């Protein structure tokens, strides 16, 4: 099964990390990357730019997409956390994905969302839209 692991952090907390805190975070992620490379469970992953560098495009019927500065969550919530990084994992089950995700929680990654990926590309007639 494939899973998207979305890491949420407060950009202000991330920007104010000390060099020692930043080094600790990088060391822990490097150790996790090495572990996942050994098991073959990590398919992809990356850090993301700050929300201030984000633009959201929103569909509008009979009009060009609306472009808004900032992440989509900023308009929908007063929460200060935003997606800061992601991993794409291929694991045996959801429990294993949760186990991996728990390793990134700390003072700066305050929430982690684990979401199954519907990998329908290349499935032809098995894709849900083809079952209509």
UniProtKB/TrEMBL annotation:
One Pfam family here: YCII
Leader sequence residues: none
Domain of life of the organism encoding this protein: Bacteria
InterPro entries hit by this protein: Dimeric_a/b-barrel (IPR011008), YCII (IPR005545)
SUPFAM superfamilies (UniProt xref): Dimeric alpha+beta barrel (SSF54909)
Gene3D superfamilies tied to this protein: Dimeric alpha+beta barrel (3.30.70.1060)
Domain YCII-related: 1-120
Family: Belongs to the YciI family.
Name of the featured protein: YCII-related protein
